[in-house]
Amino acid sequence: MGEFTVVSFFTGMFWAMVYWVVAIFQFFVPPPRKDVSGKIVLITGAGSGIGQKLSIEFAKLGCSVVGWDISTDGLSKTGSLMSDERMTSQWHPYKCDITDRHRVYEVAEKVQEDVGCVDILINNAGIVTGKKFLDCRDEMIIKTMEVNTIAHFWTLKAFLPGMIDRDSGHVVTVASGAGLFGMPGQCDYAASKFAAVGLTEALYCELEYSKSTGVKTTVVCPYYIDTGMFKGVETPLLPMIKSDDAVNQIVDAVLRNKTMLLMPRIVYFLYYLKGLMPAKTAFLTGNASGTMASMDTFRGRVD
Ligand SMILES: NC(=O)c1ccc[n+]([C@@H]2O[C@H](COP(=O)([O-])OP(=O)(O)OC[C@H]3O[C@@H](n4cnc5c(N)ncnc54)[C@H](O)[C@@H]3O)[C@@H](O)[C@H]2O)c1
């Protein structure tokens, strides 16, 4: 990039302020949705929950949807939920354990041959241990980091070069509110989600810095969603988000090229507040609201 000068500093700061004002305006008046019909969308964890519903929604929008999952039953279920022939013909399921990088690269090549270049990559697959730090088995800690974070590196290595060459594409990271706030019972999960948020933020900066601005990024940080992943958790003040609502908001954020989506909206306020509060005040606020105890009743997926 160019040399640092006083003029370049003030020019940069001027545009930074302009984009800030635009962002505040767009918070209230969102920009128009982009047309994604005919695009190829790859979704990991497409056999259940959010990934399943995202697959159906993107197929409705006229996209070819490539679904990856470790569960073939899950992928078949997603296919069976596609309501008409047009949608089914756009559905391309592949069994892929995303923690196996050789398999990721192999299946990515197959997708390229069978379906074409991926335009939108949605790193959505995720797992949770749901235990206090000292009760987490080593294997589960490793697996959580592998599925929730490290696998993103492999899918990005497979699909990002094509997007950069075409200066067009979109990388979506389904992270979590646990990627912004820590709480008891989520040490490994929060570590993996903070890392996923960090990866996406750094990648965004790299793309901007290298002027690959045609490739967009969106990081999604939801509170608990009623998919069953966090079955048993008790949420006294903020109710669980309905999965249909979460999926509609994620699709909308992608279509409007939103860089960050926090759900529900109050989380934007809490996130800024966290930066201003001492750690003890932040903890006591979370504790008074019952959030710190929410994982005490966690059962998770028992199926
Ligand atoms: N449900 C929530 O409350 C919640 C809240 C915030 C963020 N999230 C995040 O949203 C994403 C989706 O969550 P969900 O609730 O739909 O979960 P889910 O359990 O319903 O679906 C996760 C999918 O990922 C697949 N998967 C797991 N390991 C895999 C692997 N190694 N390779 C390929 N696929 C694998 C599973 O088979 C499953 O189909 C996750 O990243 C999760 O962390 C969920």
TrEMBL record:
<keyword id="KW-0520">NAD</keyword>
<dbReference type="GO" id="GO:0016616">
    <property type="term" value="F:oxidoreductase activity, acting on the CH-OH group of donors, NAD or NADP as acceptor"/>
</dbReference>
<keyword id="KW-0560">Oxidoreductase</keyword>
<comment type="similarity">
    <text>Belongs to the short-chain dehydrogenases/reductases (SDR) family.</text>
</comment>
<dbReference type="InterPro" id="IPR036291">
    <property type="entry name" value="NAD(P)-bd_dom_sf"/>
</dbReference>
<feature type="transmembrane region" description="Helical">
    <location>
        <begin position="6"/>
        <end position="29"/>
    </location>
</feature>
<dbReference type="GO" id="GO:0005811">
    <property type="term" value="C:lipid droplet"/>
</dbReference>
<keyword id="KW-0812">Transmembrane</keyword>
<protein>
    <submittedName>
        <fullName>Epidermal retinol dehydrogenase 2</fullName>
    </submittedName>
</protein>
<keyword id="KW-0472">Membrane</keyword>
<keyword id="KW-1133">Transmembrane helix</keyword>
<dbReference type="InterPro" id="IPR002347">
    <property type="entry name" value="SDR_fam"/>
</dbReference>
<dbReference type="Pfam" id="PF00106">
    <property type="entry name" value="adh_short"/>
</dbReference>
